[in-house]
Design brief:
Layout lengths: L24 H16 L2 H24 L8 E2 L2 E2 H32 L3 H4 L5 H28 L11 H25 L3 H17 L12 H8 L2 H14 L8 H28 L6
Antiparallel strand pairs: 1-2
Protein name: Transport permease protein
Pfam families: ABC2_membrane
Organism: Aurantiacibacter luteus
């Protein structure tokens, strides 16, 4: 019709130019929820089974070393053995499950050919990393809560909190460290055997040899030095300090504060390294 202005054709943006700029909060939240739903669909295996396994550790060690139910047995750091070992077992369960969750995400995608579903959405490497690590921390917190509940019901064991800040800080730092390490391991791994090797030969030994069941002052000097080089030792001992108010990190609270700062710096460095590896596309995009 005459007299009407023609509508100009819609101009499409140049190819390759991102349309979502800034921080993609919706995409990050969607991936986080997807990762949480993945482990919650099998929560009997991913949350409650680790709690039962950890409780069995408590039963075995308190009966064998601390007396039945932790009563009438030996004391460590001025508390019954069961009360001493409980925080370490909670922290160990949290860290191992944080690693298990984050190490599965990318590896399963690579093995099943579905990793494109993680790489194609408009998510930056930082957003992808935050979502996967955040879901792993969520699982770790849920496992820690389930383990703590089971231990609170166990006779002769106290899980009363003395320093809440230490419980929160070292708990989150321990879960974050293993979540980031699990993501890095899933980038490197090419099959599930590689992931299992990291779990069996790195994560499990460092967890069990970190003072979970003993104080390192009982070790000879060379082995004390080795234990102090183990970052798991500071996570578990700092977490135990939050419950008992005492720790074998050092003779005063200043040592615990230094350890708290140290584990924070360690996580920042590990996170930066993992981010750079993820951004390079090594073993993912190539």
């Amino acid at each position: 019709m005459t007299g009407q202005a023609s509508v100009p054709p819609r101009a499409f943006p140049p190819k390759g130019e991102p349309q979502i700029t800034g921080f993609n909060r919706v995409g990050l939240w969607s991936l986080y929820i997807k990762e949480c739903r993945r482990f919650l669909k099998v929560q009997t295996q991913t949350v409650w089974a680790p709690a039962v396994t950890t409780l069995l550790f408590l039963v075995i060690f308190t009966v064998a070393l601390g007396g039945a139910g932790g009563r009438g047995g030996r004391e460590v750091l001025g508390v019954p053995f069961g009360t001493f070992v409980a925080p370490g077992l909670i922290m160990m369960g949290m860290m191992q499950n944080a690693f298990a969750n984050s190490s599965f995400s990318l590896l399963a995608g690579k093995m099943q050919g579905t990793i494109i579903d993680l790489l194609m959405p408009p998510l930056s490497e930082a957003e992808l990393m935050i979502a996967i690590v955040g879901a792993a921390i969520t699982r770790a917190v849920m496992v820690g809560g389930a383990v703590a509940l089971a231990m609170a019901l166990y006779p002769g064991v106290s899980v009363a909190v003395t320093h809440p800040w230490a419980v929160v800080w070292f708990g989150l730092m321990g879960a974050t460290m293993l979540a980031i390490f699990g993501l890095l391991a899933s980038i490197w791994a090419e099959k599930f055997d590689h992931n299992a090797a990291i779990t069996n030969f790195v994560v499990a030994p460092l967890s069990l040899l970190s003072g979970t069941f003993y104080v390192i002052s009982n070790l000879s000097e060379p082995f004390q030095a080795i234990s102090r080089a183990n970052p798991f030792f500071y996570m578990i001992s700092g977490f135990r300090y939050g419950f008992l108010g005492v720790s074998d990190i050092g003779n005063d609270n200043a040592h615990v504060l230094v350890a708290a700062a140290g584990v924070g710096v360690l996580n920042l460095v590990l996170g930066l390294v993992t981010y750079r590896v993820l951004k390079s596309g090594w073993k993912i995009k190539s």
